[in-house]
Amino acid sequence: MYVYLNNAATTKTDGRVLFKMSKYYSELFENPMTSNYSPLAKNVEEEMENSRENVAKLLNVKRDEIYFTSGGTESDNWAIKGIALSNWDKKGEIISTPIEHMAVLKTLETVKKWGFDIKFLPVDKYGMVDPEDLKKLITKKTLLISVMHANNEIGTIEPIEEIGKIAKENGVIFHTDSVQSFCHIDIDVNKMNIDLLSISAHKFYGPKGVGSLYIRKGIDISPFMDGGHQENELRSGTHNSPGIIGLGEAVKIATNEMEEEKKSVLFMKKMIEDRVKNIEGININGHPEKRLPNNLSLTIDRVNAETMLTYLAVNGIIVSAGSACSAKEKSASHVLKTIGLPDELAHNTIRISLGKFNLVKEIEYFNEVFEYGVKKFREMAPK
Question: Where along the chain do its domains lie?
Fold first, then answer.
């Protein structure tokens, strides 16, 4: 049996998405920027606009506020660098958290070199931001607040609506990386006062290499790539039209099936939680209630995560030790260290992330293999 429990790293592309995309690689392959004289290109352009509309509807925004990108990393880069470039002369401050995805943290390092000040909000042992801390940290020089909607490693959902309210009251632009949450939990950018929002299709059963950035109308943001006139002259580069159309189809499917998926993954997650509670020396990281429905971060006393990952993989089960983007790194997770785990325990932590294609029998198999592995590795560990 092969059991894939690493859906936070990437998801299997839905067959309906692949079917929708297929003809845009073959008979409808033309560049949508030539739609003024090619009827086939016009067809491609129209289908891309349908995708834009699908994203806009789910976020409760206008279609012309959605811009297509190559994925979450580009969207995060554009959001932060674009605001920085638009405020180049006056510089200013950007507020974020130390547990953001590296796409945000590395971008903040770059804009710091450009002369912008970077401030980090503290988080508690669950990885949760306290909005009161934001009120203390914000100043008249603050240009941008960037706080992820839900953490990719421990699943904690941040108080985005409260953060957005504070940002709006202070006239500060608010960006959120919603790569892990979009199409999995509800997002209403108007209710949450979000100005910029990043998504990536491969996290919700769409294709890899495509995403989008929501930009609220009226936000002064500069392009950070030079080139052609695509995406209202803000994002250059030939459109990945099959990917964009696949993204739109994945959003359409999620709009209809998100609640059903939530129930399914919550049920299977509880199966794992109930089994784990009976094993001594295992701690669940992240907020106990305000968390993604599919995420489970486990710290296993006296069992190294790499050893457990290898053992599970040999038995056909795929989980991770943290963010896929940092999977090759041997240093302890910055997220786990920030929430207070010492290096030893951080190196004993695995992440299980469920998806809509997982089955109950797979979770039953995982539970048996996992519990047996914990027992055997502890027997072999030094006392």
Answer: 3-9+258-380, 15-253
Mean pLDDT of 24-39: 93
In this prediction, residue 322 has a pLDDT band, given cuts at 50, 70 and 90, of low
For the stretch 154-169, pLDDT in tens is: 999 999 999 999 999 9
Phi-psi region of 316 (alpha: psi -120 to 50; beta: other; left: phi over 0): left
- What's the topology of domain 3-9+258-380? Aspartate Aminotransferase, domain 1 (3.90.1150)
User: Catalytic: 325?
Assistant: yes
Which numeric CATH code is attached to 15-253? Answer: 3.40.640.10
Catalytic residue from among 50, 284, 325, 337: 325
Question: pTM of the entire structure?
Answer: 0.95
pLDDT tens for each residue of 79-117: 999 999 999 999 999 999 999 999 999 999 999 999 999
